[in-house]
Design brief:
mainly alpha
Amino acid sequence: MDRDDTKKQLVMDYQGTFGTTEGRRVLENLSEKCREHVATYVELNPHRSSYLEGMRSVIIYMRIMLAKDPHKEKQTEAIQGKD
C-alpha cells in the first residue's frame, strides 16, 4: 500500500469508526471531555492552558479527518504542495 492509499484508508477508517451511532456518541463525549467548544485559556496558568489546548487539538484533528473526502486526498495535497 503506497502513501496515498494509506492516507485514504486512514480517512475511511475514521469515517467508518465514528460514522456509526455508537461512534457519533463516543465522538460527542470526546468533544465534551476535550473542550472542543469551550475556551481553553486558564488565567495565570499557561501550563494548564497548553494542556487543555492540546486536548482540544485532538478532537479538532478528528473532525478534520471526518470531513475529508478520501478520494480527493491526493489532489488536495498536490494543490497545497505537500508530498
